[in-house]
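Render this sequence as a predicted structure.
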Amino acid sequence: MHFQGMDFFELAAIGIFVVLVGVFLINLALRKTVQLSMIDGLIAAFAFWCFASYLIYYEQGRFRELARLLIPLFTYIVAKNVLADRMQYLSMLRSMIMGFSVPLFVTIGLIATGGGIETTGDELTINYWTGIPRWQGAFFGAHSLGHLMTFLAMVLLVFYTLDSETGGTARKILWTRFFLFFMALLAITCLFLSQVRTAILGLVIFGAIYLFVYYKRLLLILAIAGSVSAVLAAPILFPFFFPDLVMIQKGEGGFEAIGSGRPRIWSTNLEFFMQLPIDLQLAGVGIGNKVQVGSFGKYSYSDSHNDYLDILLQTGLIGLVLLVAIQFAILRRVLVMPGRERFVFLGVFVAVMVMNFVSNSYVSRFELAQLYYLLMAYVEVAPREEQQYSRRPVSNATS
């Protein structure tokens, strides 16, 4: 489903932002207070820089891409002011999971009946290296399916971690865990069918961090079982997931072909950046000024398959420094969170940072970025709730 070049999930992301802004304005009118932090200040600085760069070099930028870049960051500011406590945050996660369940079940149904294969017009989209069709299910492309399934799997574990601390009846807890496990199983199945290696890598990193902290023995068992399975199934799985390495082994390419040619792409774009005039090195060549989405003369560039490199090219060195500063500020908040919360969110953070570095992920994919910053808003919701709790008067139970 498309509208004005946007798929359903991008439209849903815009809808979420509009609803959040509406609730934020209502709360602002009632409470007349806004919670601001260093993260918000850095987001404001990044947004100001992007707007200034867009206005100064307006002939090289695209406003639509500017909005897609900044709306997810503004979502963080709005969400952490709208969500007052853990229970409201859990309700938001519950709604997110239920929203995911519809396209997830539809995707499983499509795949089970032989549908849901990625197409371009009337032709199948096949893996460049293997010639195998890629599954997209009810989503817009295999990459969209893969990344969103990884995100869903992480959300499910975040919800499980936070919900486990709220209590409830044994029956409710049992059914909740069964539903979360069932959803995770379906999500992981769809992830592998999408063949998106970056998303698989992200989920492996997320799971490894969480298991290393709390279930080291289980991680060791899974690592051994996975290694043995990988060796036994290598003749099938290796060409399926690493066909570029197979081509290199056959002498049909060099190191630059690894990761669908990422080393070559990165070196080419870094060389392009170093040859830019100093003002464009600082301010960028224009947000959205990619060959794939409509170039603007000699300073347009090819997609980097690396979100940070793309940000460097589009917003310049200053823009990249500000975006990285935002991430470090979020990381600082994560590291002071208590108990299991800290490590489940640390797993999400590290996995996302790695996926951003090796592909187009939680910066360039608007719907992913929107959901990610909505999820990470908890890093400021949690300490605020704790402060409110500590300020409550303690009544004397004894005379």
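Summary. The mean pLDDT is 81. Residues 92-217 form one domain.
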